[in-house]
User: Fold these one by one.
Assistant:
Number 1:
Amino acid sequence: MISSGARPCFLIVFIVMTYGFNILWPYQCAFAQTPTKRPGLCLFDSLYPSAKLYAVEPKFQKLLSTHLPIPLKSDPEAFSTIPVVVHIIHNGGTENISNAQIERQIAILNEDFGKLSGTPGEGKGVDTHVRFCLAKLDPFGRCTDGIVRINTPLTNHQPADRSALKNLSFWNPARYLNIYVVRTISGEVGGYASFPYAPPDEDGVVVRHHLFGDSGTAAASGGRTLTHEVGHWLGLYHTFSAGCGQDTCTEGDFVCDTPPVAAPNYSCNLNSNSCSNDLPNLPDQVRNYMDYTPDDCKNMFTPGQKNRIAATLKGVRSLIVSASNLALTGCDSAYVRPLMCPVAADFITLTTQVCSGTKVYFMDRSLNTATSWEWSFPGGTPAFSILPNPTVTYDTPGSFSAELIASNGNGSDTLQLNNYILVSKPQIGLHLPFMVNFDDGAFPSQGIGVNNPDFNIGWELDTLAAHSLPYSVSIDNLQNLNYGTRDELVLPALDLSSTRVGNNLMLNFWWAYARSDPNYSDQLIVQISKDCGANYSNIWSKSGDDLATGPTQTTPFVPNSTQWNKASVRLFQYKTEQHLQIRFVNVTDGGNRLYLDDIQINDGIPTASKEPQNLNLPLQLIPNPAQEQVFVHGKDNWREPIYCKVYDGFGRLLRDFGMLTAPVLDLIGLPAGLLLVRFESTGRIATFRLIKGS
Ligand SMILES: [Ca+2]
Ligand SMILES: [Ca+2]
Ligand SMILES: [Ca+2]
Ligand SMILES: [Ca+2]
Ligand SMILES: [Zn+2]
């Protein structure tokens, strides 16, 4: 077996907002063929407060105390079998690996988890008593080889886009271990896995094809990437998790019999001893599957790791190994699969709701190797196809079915999906000019949408800095550590044909940004869609020094009034579009804060606006800071009615004073700290930052 060199790793952290608490799911980890730009990235788990990284660890400890030592001591012969489905996400290249290569990988999993004698998995560790079975029955009870193949460019996988793979094909994760094989993973990552207790729709493992198994396209691999990733999926941390620490049982990987390790081992140095707080002081266990040593070095799980795996399978993943599930998936010994499963027709498209005129890409995902296809697309062009993966255009609004007859030498099968494609006439967008300055303190509003696919850090109203006071929107990439994830600010659909001239049709906006490190570069991309959001193209993009408007700093960037830049993008070529969509996309690299303000789309001709102009009212708040009352100096000199609202530092309305009758605001009952006081009168606005003492 050939080792594949240094293998840095990649760790994705997925934060879910639940009832106001941050729960952080470690998504670990990966082997890569070549060093990534951040070889220390997997030290992530030692860089972050253990209270966050190990948020789910108390649940494991509870499982361990509840269920052990039953699997080890009193039931030593019990085996747990995990049904597996392998989704081959390919684009017609060599990444469409053979069934033989897939079957070898499943065999390697069983060699490693079973410490099978005579195989490379026979090391000094233990048989975990976990076995893996390529599913023989699919979720509908149909005979299957446990392999799904889908032809899509998504084979070049962005870990930030985990949901994209699940949208293509995903079997009930409570009953199957979903394994995805792809051509590439961005950042030279070799694979990654979800951790127990992660959200069910994130469950599974992703591995690059050339590390999947030890034959075919993975002939240079030992197939241990999957062993390591499934270790994570079963609840194991890296042996070097959180470094040496102090206590060797209740810290690090929470496994007593794996010696603590300071940092990933990339070579098979049996004398490596990076921590001396273990007693006796043993060398690092470089042969452990949960370190980063080469495939031909690793060959063991310890009894302590077996305990954690057993606890996972007795607890959070108990259904998947239950007798009833083995019967449902054909993985119990009673089920005998026919030599040839009949073909089972299946297909999918990722765009089932489109505007008229949009192309829809249909992907065959029939089981058991279809060799010919007969498609029917009522309402579509073409209306029939014999391609495996046809593209169909729908010109007329309506709800349409799609049908596939998939065949091979063994027979044929039909799948018809009724009302599968919904084609609508595009709504005419908002008239120009379009302007948003975020200064009403409501966000998102004015038809703006926010997409935050990882539910982590996203675009928010910003009260600390603005181009037009008092508000802008910002995204805090200092905290946005799911590297590569996108966050979108989507403008409402616009009718550009409503412009009077069009020749000077422009998108203008102001942005502010600073870097936190010369190596980290967040990105701002502006994209435009003419087909109701089905496809977007870039019209503006900046990153790194081109994006920066302030000095590099490791502290949160808060721009002053001189640190805003204006961007102007010509939209002349879109002037006939009646439903144009524009979105601002932040791609985080863990840099620093990015701000946006005063987004305008107009034809350069000034228009009379009924919106309040941001002109100051001649008012003052005295005193500031204030305690129970504050005087509105100048109120009595202003003849028109003045309305007043008070917001907190997050832009949330705290009190609406309505029309002021006296030149004084009663602050009793408002929280201490920063208050934003906003006055409005006959199209004029004044906003003040008032500090209320406690
Ligand atoms: Ca340990
Ligand atoms: Ca040691
Ligand atoms: Ca986000
Ligand atoms: Ca503003
Ligand atoms: Zn890992």
Number 2:
Amino acid sequence: MKPAPFVYHAPADVQETLELLAELGPEAKVLAGGQSLVPVLNMRLASPAHLVDINRVAGLDEVTVEPGGVRVGALVRHAHLLSHSAARTAQPLLRQALRWVAHPVIRNRGTTVGSIVHADPAGEMPAVLALTDGHVLLRSVHGDREVPASSFFVGPMECCATADELAVEAVFGRFPPGTRTGFSEIARRHGDYALAGVALALRLGDDGSVTSARASFVSLTEVPDVLDLTDAVAGATAADLPGLAGRVEEVVGGHVDPVDDIHASADYRRHLAVVQTHRLLDRLTAGEDADGTVRLPDAPTDQEVTA
Ligand SMILES: Cc1cc2nc3c(=O)[nH]c(=O)nc-3n(C[C@H](O)[C@H](O)[C@H](O)COP(=O)(O)OP(=O)(O)OC[C@H]3O[C@@H](n4cnc5c(N)ncnc54)[C@H](O)[C@@H]3O)c2cc1C
């Protein structure tokens, strides 16, 4: 199908974009990479009267690594962020999760900020923003507001940005040194949206036992809220984890709220959430790769990621 007719706008700078969004209001949609919006338009699930294409807006394509976090501009493509060595060193979860986002062609166009604004519960990057206690900077003609991930996502496919606001950047938080992170996902085929995915951040004490463990989920909760697993596994070493499977099942199974669809039942997704969380806890407690990532057996290789 073809989209319904719309008026196309291509502002050159942020100010012009904000003025257009203020003037057009709910009749307009921002177009970034188009990897989610264009299919929605083609299927006529949305028919905005105006599209405001931000691809020519200068100054939105920067990744900046700061002590407080990794700032990702609105026009930074997934592929750029995935290959940004300083960003992935500062926050290894970026690389660990971006490897699972769609295919190279889609990552070349799709923006990380667009994926966050799109707020799909099956998107990897909203879960990473939540787990890193990140935030989104929204800008309108009335000024800026910085919205933490914990209040940015308000429902499936719905964030708190208003029609006149441009998401200028997303800032992913950094973890304290020594934090171990991992990301696990199961999809029917690599590149498909996840049936279930888990991001995990874990800290160990000097004796190698768990002092903190937090997780966020993909395709398992309506919004990417964070589950604190610390009480369930505090003090556990790698040797203790097999015995904690029941406790992990209780806590994770009680937190996630998946739905049945044509791809998988809710029960199966819940099972995948529990198994992947337990497996990540096990591997992160036992050890990590030199680059700070845990290499899970079914994670895509570097060759697959760039192919
Ligand atoms: C075949 C296929 C497979 C995919 N698989 C995955 C996957 O496995 N995981 C995953 O996470 N994603 C997946 N995607 C989606 C992809 O990651 C998109 O790029 C991303 O979700 C949206 O980014 P975009 O830049 O393309 O946004 P667009 O499609 O341009 O916009 C998406 C929405 O966000 C709004 N928007 C975008 N940027 C801004 C901004 N700066 N300010 C205000 N509003 C804004 C738009 O108005 C629109 O409502 C897939 C897409 C396709 C086509």
Number 3:
Amino acid sequence: MLTIWGRINSHNVKKVVWLAEEIGLPHQRIDMGGQFGFTDAYLAANPNRLIPTIDDDGFVLWESNAILRYLADRYGPEFQPADAQQRAAADKWMDWQFSFADAQRNAFIGLVRKKPEERDENAIAASASAAGKMVAILEAELERQPWLSGKRFGIGDIPMGVYIHTWLTLPIERAERPAVKDWYARLRKREAFDRIAQVPLT
Ligand SMILES: N[C@@H](CCC(=O)N[C@@H](CS)C(=O)NCC(=O)O)C(=O)O
């Protein structure tokens, strides 16, 4: 059976749990990282001191987006376009998500993890602004096609789905982005994502 290590409030763990549930893959999740710390056995499997890591019947893998690609290749081909160019076009949004995470990080940490008196308001505003500029790029893509994966939902939608949930939840100023909002609403209709999205930001 698939084991997923990582606390469920982690963006990168949410992605993997979401896909496992979309595929209907039996799995167990074991808390690790954050307040749970790391066991020596975990660090032997993933020396990065980061989550998630999976063990699929003895095959150990870390890096959340590599895990998404592996699980889709092995168990959920319907979640990836078959055509190489369509697949690459979807794939780029998975890599782009890491740049978005960098942009949004100070707003997330400042507003969710820090006490009001500890907050660096300038860093939060700069981060919210940088993330907002990137969402304009996402908006343009979602005006052209219904999903980041193309005509159908796929793993290209998962990383940014998790991060846009955070963007829409943080108490920051946001421009109106109707195509992004519509895409997010369609993602929320998927049971697996709706469950993930109900995990409070912490
Ligand atoms: N590129 C890595 C990033 C992993 C990462 O930064 N994970 C965060 C949680 S989202 C982490 O492990 N933080 C330390 C901790 O939770 O203890 C991936 O996608 O798997």
